[in-house]
C-alpha cells in the first residue's frame, strides 16, 4: 500500500513537471521573462543570483544528439536531492545563465536585432492636434473620433454613435455638424486618407493632397463618378463615359494604384502598439562557412538559484513541531524551485535541438537567403529527427521568430508541403509559390497569363504542376484570375 502511494505521488510530480515543461515550450523569449518574474514572486525559495561568466555560444547544435521524450524525465523529482546543487555558487553550472549575445561591433557573431516599435496612430494624430487651435470642446470631440479609428485608419463609428458616446461619457451634447467639422479637420492630418468612412472617401482624400494636373484630375473624376465600375473592372464603361482614350485611362489608373487602401499601415494599433515589434527568439548566422545558432531570450533575463536562507532552514536542527513544519515547507519550495530551473534548462536544450534541426533541414536557404532553396518540410520530419512528438514541435514553432542574415522569419515559414521536380528533387510549395508570384509580376498586364500558361512556364523551370494546383497556389497568394489582372 505504501509503495503504491509513493508511485502515485511520483507520477503526480512527473505530470506536474511535464505540464510546466509544455507551458514553457509555448512561450516566446519575451514571455519567458514574465513567467520567470511570476515564479520569483510566488516562490520565496527561488531568487536571482549575481551574474557570472557567460556560457559558450550554442553554435555546435548540429553535433548534438537528438533529445528523447524520456531522457531524464524524472530528473529533479527524487526526494534525496542535494540542495547545494542549486546554490548561488558562481562555480556551479546549475544556476541558469543568460545566453551570450554578440555585440553590435563583434565580428564573431550576429548582432541581436530588435525591430523598431511601430508608433501608435493615435499618438501620431494627438501630436498633430497640438498644432491646431482647438477649444476644450473641440479637442474632446477630436479625441473620440481618433479613438474610433480602425487599425487601417478608417472611422468605424457613425455620427450618431459618436454623439451618443460624448453625451453619455462626457456630458457633451455635440451636433452632427460639429462632429462632421472635426472629422474634416482630422482628415487634413497625416497620413493622407485618414478618418475616411470608406475606401472611396479615403482615395479621394489622398488624391486631393496630390499636385493638380490633368492626369490627377482625371483620376479624381474616375473615383468620384465611376468608383463601382473601377472596382468591378468595367474599364470600357469608364472610357466611354469620360470620352477618353485607353492610354489616358491607363495613366490615371497608375496614379490610383499608387494610393494606399490602408492609410494607417505602418502604424501600431491603438491597443497593441506596445507589442507591435517582433523580437526574434533565435538568431542564426553564417560565420567562416559555419552556421551558428543563438537563443535570444529577453534582454536582462535573470540568473536563478536557490535562496541560501531557505537552504539553511533545511539544515537546521529540529527542536520543535514549528521547526519541523518550517523545514517541510522550505524543502517543498526548494523542490519546486529546482524543478523550475530544470524546466528552463530543458526548454533551452529542447529549443536548440528543434530549431537546430529546422536550420539543418533548410541549410541551403540560411546560407543563401534564396527562397527557391527552401525544401519541403513538415512537422513530422522534425519530430522524428529530435525524437519528440508532433504536438511538441507545433507548440515550439508557434509565435516564435528567427533572425537570419537575410531577415526575420516566423518558424512556421520553413514548413510547407512540396512537389517533385523534373530532376526528381523535392521542391517546396513555398518556393513554387514564390516563383509563381515572380512570373505574374513580370507578365504583360495587357495579356495576363492563364493558369494553364503559368503551369507550362513552371514546367519549363523544372516544376511539373497541374493547372488546378497553379490555381490553388495563386488563390493562396491572393492573386486574382487573369481576366481581373488585365490592364488597358
Automatic annotation (TrEMBL):
Record's keyword terms, sorted: DNA-binding, DNA-directed RNA polymerase, Nucleotidyltransferase, Sigma factor, Transcription, Transcription regulation, Transferase
What sequence ranges are listed for the domain RNA polymerase sigma factor 54 core-binding?
117-310
Could you name the domain of life of the organism this protein comes from? Bacteria
GO MF, any single term: DNA-binding transcription activator activity
What GO CC terms are in its UniProt record?
DNA-directed RNA polymerase complex
Spell out the Pfam families in the cross-references: Sigma54_AID, Sigma54_CBD, Sigma54_DBD
Decide whether keyword Thylakoid is in the record.
no
Q: Where is the composition biased (Acidic residues)?
A: 48-93
Q: Give yes or no: UniProt keyword Nucleus.
A: no
Q: Where is the segment annotated Disordered?
A: 38-123
Could you tell me the Gene Ontology terms of the biological process aspect for this record?
DNA-templated transcription initiation
Q: Where does the RNA polymerase sigma factor 54 DNA-binding domain lie?
A: 329-486
InterPro entries documented for this protein: RNA_pol_sigma_54, RNA_pol_sigma_54_core-bd, RNA_pol_sigma_54_DNA-bd, RpoN_core-bd_sf
Among PROSITE patterns, the record links this protein to: SIGMA54_2 (PS00718), SIGMA54_3 (PS50044)
Similarity field:
Belongs to the sigma-54 factor family.
Q: What is this protein called?
A: RNA polymerase sigma-54 factor
Organism this protein belongs to: Porphyromonas endodontalis (strain ATCC 35406 / DSM 24491 / JCM 8526 / CCUG 16442 / BCRC 14492 / NCTC 13058 / HG 370)
From the broadest rank down, the organism's phylogenetic lineage runs: Bacteria, Pseudomonadati, Bacteroidota, Bacteroidia, Bacteroidales
